[in-house]
Amino acid sequence: MDYNSNIHHRRSIRLKHYDYTTNGYYFVTICTENKENLFGDIIDGKMLLSHAGNMVEERYLNLKNMFEDIELVQYIVMPNHFHAIIALVGAGFMSAHDEVSSNPKRADTRPAPTMGDVICAFKSMTTNAYIKGVRSGIYSPFQKHIWQRNYYEHVIRDKNEFLNTWEYIASNALKWCEDEYYV
Question: Is residue 14 part of a domain?
Fold first, then answer.
């Protein structure tokens, strides 16, 4: 189907005039395609990860090795979605003319990652690993995609919002039946 701006208009949920390369905390939610339960089950308020759920968790934790300018603060893998607080903590973008980085780990001129870079890497790694698992008979087959096309991100603006988000993630499995992603 060709693009038609009258039909295919997506409303952005991003803050207007906010620089999403800015250091700070971001609340991220990524859902599986069609809210399929691929990553485990909730039993007695606890998330029990399946083999695929463990793989998702492992790939998430590996992001720190790929992006030195992020901090993985809080997360949970749920049956059909994933929540995290991720901090961008790098020195920000450097131009090719900058001679010395203010971040001693970043002596080259690579720009600090954006949240989009981090999520793209995560979705790509988990999708590739999941496909290999399906081919070897470890994971259940899926329809077209594992993850939905986009993801939700929210800029955490103050300490209170940070604490509320932390608590929401920490108690997500306990409130599974009330969750908007519960299927």
Answer: no
